[in-house]
Write a structure and sequence with these properties.
The chain has three helices and no strands. It has helices spanning about 10-20, 25-40, 45-95.
């Protein structure tokens, strides 16, 4: 059974339908702040310093994600070694 549903809807209507917040004003303020900072710092323009307030939390989050992946990989390796050891012990017990 196939069901096809075509809906003509604007992005704003979809956002409201899904209950997502309207971030248009926030985005506009962010862009205005960036434009102002670029104009003020045209001589000593440093893009890292420009975006640092917006990225500081994001970079910390990625560091945490990376640590979680490493911990998960280590845990996986430990479990794999434990399973190998259990199999060795089972073979010894069978003999």
């Amino acid at each position: 059974m196939n069901i096809r549903l075509d809906v003509e809807i604007t992005p704003e209507e979809l956002r409201k339908l899904l209950g997502l917040p309207n971030v248009e004003a926030f985005n506009q303020q962010l862009m205005n702040d960036l434009r102002q900072r670029i104009k003020e710092g045209a001589e000593g323009y440093d893009p890292i310093k420009l975006f640092q307030p917006y990225l500081s939390g994001t970079l910390a989050s990625w560091d945490l994600v990376q640590k979680l992946f490493v911990a998960g990989a280590k845990g996986s390796l430990i479990k794999k070694e434990e399973r190998k050891e259990e199999k060795r012990e089972e073979k010894k017990d069978e003999k």
